[in-house]
Design goal:
Strand order of the largest sheet: 1-2
Distance between the termini: 61 Å
Shape: flat
Largest sheet: 2 strands, antiparallel
Number of strands: 2
Structural class: mainly alpha
Radius of gyration: 29 Å
Order of helices and strands: HEEHHHHHHHHHHHH
Oligomer: single chain
């Protein structure tokens, strides 16, 4: 016959346990307060120099303001004026053309250079320094240097072509060559940073994968296709997005090499500069164009991230 064992009544929680839990919560709150105090300076600077200018720019897009007289609210008039500008679609066409050419040169070339540098057995440090050196130069110095290269009279490129008895080029003066010339400057100036990041990604690929591919008889191209590219997929996608965003905001190269009046090289950022400082002296129109660029890049980034995310 089964016997029932008496059960002990539940013991009430001890006061010490409650006090211990309360002190633990207070300690966590204090740690969080200290952490936010350490972050306060950084958050303040980020809000003051990043978010507030963004908000101010959006507000300015609905005003007519030259920073001299009192600003006036004009609603959507700035956006309408920007859309009615004949240079609006020309600037977008030139910007997209520059971005497309930059992807052919500035995206593929650094990856190829990184693979070559990764395979080198000697003088790795020297060649990495040589590739990264242009990044350390101020952008305006780089553009002025290439301005001498492109000079139609005594420029380096035309002098070399003349010495080889080849036809010279107008480079930045030629409607056919102007965008290619701008892309060459941008690629040379910025490829060092992308190359270093590609080298870091290549260094993280396990050597066993390449050894297994070699044992299977894979050549250099098959190893790149079946080992390097899959292992570098995330880095390639991130750098592709960053490069598109950066090249869509190109300004220094067309501004210095071709000026702000050449319709063959005016970009969105150059047009924004024209609105603010040269033609209209209206920062409201410049802000409206900036907001349109922000919306386009934001929508593209969201779509890109959604399409390339892992399933």
């Amino acid at each position: 016959m089964a016997t029932l064992t008496p059960t002990r009544p539940a013991r009430p929680p001890q006061a010490g346990t409650a006090r211990g839990g309360g002190s633990l919560r207070r300690r966590r709150i204090a740690d969080n307060v200290h952490a936010y105090l350490f972050l306060a300076a950084g958050l303040l600077c980020f809000g003051l120099f990043s978010w507030w200018p963004l908000v101010k720019g959006i507000i300015l897009a609905f005003q007519q303001d030259n920073f001299v007289t009192e600003p006036q609210w004009v609603g959507l008039a700035n956006f309408q004026a920007v859309l009615d500008d004949p240079l609006f679609w020309t600037a977008w066409k030139n910007t997209l053309e520059f971005t497309g050419l930059a992807l052919l040169f500035g995206y593929a070339v650094p990856f190829a250079v990184a693979i070559v540098l990764h395979e080198l057995r000697h003088l790795k440090g020297f060649f990495r320094f040589a590739v990264y050196l242009p990044v350390m130069l101020p952008p305006i110095v780089t553009v002025i240097l290439w301005q001498y290269f492109y000079d139609p009279g005594n420029g380096l490129f035309n002098s070399v072509l003349s010495a080889l008895h080849l036809p010279t080029s107008g480079w930045t003066q030629s409607p056919r060559m102007v965008m290619v010339s701008l892309v060459l400057v941008s690629t040379w100036a910025n490829m060092g940073g992308a190359t270093i990041m590609y080298l870091a990604g290549l260094a993280g690929i396990p050597g066993e994968l390449y050894e297994a591919a070699e044992l299977d008889g894979a050549g250099i191209w098959r190893r790149i296709r079946h080992v390097t590219l899959p292992q570098m997929r995330f880095l390639l996608l991130v750098l592709l997005l960053l490069q598109i965003i950066a090249t869509m905001q190109v300004f220094i190269e067309p501004y210095q090499l071709t000026g702000t009046t050449n319709p063959d090289s005016v970009t969105v950022m150059v047009l924004i500069y024209r609105y603010a400082f040269t033609v209209n002296n209206d920062f409201g129109m410049a802000a409206a164009m900036s907001v349109l660029l922000f919306v386009v890049l934001g929508a593209f980034s969201a779509a890109y991230l959604r399409l390339t995310r892992n399933p």
